[in-house]
Design a protein that fits this description.
Length: 209
């Protein structure tokens, strides 16, 4: 299983080589892996910003505790969750589903009403937490895709979401930054690259019931 070999190869890269850039072809593969991610009900209530602009990234670095990955990596990905689930979000999904699968959208009304009842009845904070969790499924696909391409990556929660929201104008779009990740190529000076991977044993992690 090549995936296991690639996951053993990857690590949370702390120092990137700023001179090396991800090719357009590989970048599209990473984006497609994110797009194909699973999400609850299939709604994909998030948006992924791919930040290339260096000046914006310098500002975001200040909101990321000064971590150099933000500016030195080839690309910065900001996974933004929908702050509030609206009935129109579900209607848009049903329209997309009907068009994609050649269905009568009217036949999906019961399914849509079920989703609306379950999701719009949640408190605003619960909605925000739920949509934020969906972004982590996409993040997992991002990390696996990078590993398969032997592109280094680093998922990061060490940032100030409110500052990201302000810098990127996310609030006006009904979004909020949930998690960020950098992708590129490790620097030869990254001292963490040779360290053994620290993970719990299978016996500690799994229990068969």
């Amino acid at each position: 299983m090549k995936l296991l070999e690639n996951l053993n190869w990857r690590y949370a890269t702390k120092k990137f080589d700023p001179s090396r850039k991800i090719s357009p072809g590989d970048l599209e593969k990473i984006k497609e892996a994110i797009r194909l991610s699973a999400s609850s009900y299939g709604l994909q209530l998030y948006k992924v910003l791919v930040i290339e602009d260096h000046e914006i990234r310098k500002t975001l670095k200040e909101a990321s505790w000064g971590q150099t990955q933000i500016t030195d990596a080839s690309h910065l990905f900001v996974f933004c969750n929908t702050a509030q689930v609206k009935a129109s979000d579900i209607d848009d999904y049903l329209e997309l589903k009907a068009n994609t699968q050649n269905l009568d959208v009217g036949n999906l009304k019961g399914y849509g009403d079920f989703m609306k009842d379950k999701l719009t009845s949640l408190s605003p904070e619960a909605q925000k937490n739920w949509t934020a969790r969906q972004t982590y499924i996409a993040l997992g696909n991002f990390l696996a895709a990078c590993a398969e391409l032997h592109i280094d990556s680093c998922p990061m929660e060490g940032f100030e979401p409110e500052q990201y929201d302000e810098i990127l104008g996310l609030k006006e779009k009904g979004l909020t930054a949930a998690v960020v990740a950098t992708a590129g190529y490790r620097s030869k000076e990254d001292q963490t690259q040779g360290m053994a991977k620290v993970r719990k044993s299978a016996d500690q992690l799994f229990e068969t019931i």
